Amino acid sequence: MRRITWVGLLVVIGLLLAKGVGRAEDVKIGVVDVNKIFSNYSKVTETQAEFDKIKTQRQGDVQKKADAADKEIKVLLDKLDKQGTVMKKEETDKIKTEIEKKKQDILNLQQKIYQELQQKNRELVDARVKEINAATGELAKKEGYSVVINKEAVLYSPEMTDLTDQVIAYLNNKPAPPKK
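Above: the chain's sequence. Below: its structure in token form.
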């Protein structure tokens, strides 16, 4: 994240120099605390609740399947315990293979659900980040800022205005777009 911030800062400085900004007085620079914005943006809370609901549902689905597989495995293990000594080796090997397959199927399902949840979380977070970036840009244009930098990338800033609270207010009071 820090690397991206520094690269972004260098790109902004390069663009300003290429644009021909001649005097420091011509450049109005603001900073924002992205973490604070993310923590105080109301849609992030809504997004987290949505994700938690999906996560709980998917974990419940996995648990039901794992419980069913455990019952099946228990039946197979009981069969092996009770009849294993009189069964042919091929039969016991077949049951053991079936048990391992059921265990592996549950592990695969758990991994698949975990990956799905990670992807869904990334999508939800990315949507909020895009909204934050767009709001910051709109506010910066409206207020006449040439550059807005993430506060974490700034070591010293006596001349920069912190726009964090303005961005939070803008985001939280912005009407929702019409649903299609």
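Strands lie at 29-32, 147-150, 161-162.
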